[in-house]
Prior knowledge:
It is a single chain. The protein is globular and about 45 Å long. Helix 2 (26-33) crosses helix 4 (83-99). By secondary structure, the chain is mainly α. Helix content is 67%, strand content 0%. The mean pLDDT is 83.
Amino acid sequence: MQRLVFAFIAGGLFGAGLFISGMTDTTKVQGWLDVFGAWDPTLAFVMGGAMLPMALAWLIAARRRSALLGTVLPPKPSTRIDRKLVLGSLLFGAGWGLAGLCPGPAIASLSYGGTGGYIFVAAMLTGMIVAPFVRTRLDKPVPAE
């Protein structure tokens, strides 16, 4: 039960942060990505404000064996750049640029995002279902010719 309470609090703080920072405003996100047009640099502060605490959290987590609630900490992510990472990054970036949403803000904006938000979340969920099948294909070795 304690884990659920902390997850609820963390999710609420995350959603509030997304809303306050403007990450749920699709025009603000698209303005950040429009570097050759009406560029809006304010999301750089949001990203910097997210990266600094995360870097600190990684430093603290590296010295711990378990999380505060006693669960096992996940391993550090791989630093290997492969075709799955590049393809995933391209798809994520294209979706973010076209829709102005990524998964967190999309879910946070469901209560007021209108039809577009629902379509985005439906497409995102479809992608999550299809992704393991695509990943299996990408994991197969390419035969040498």
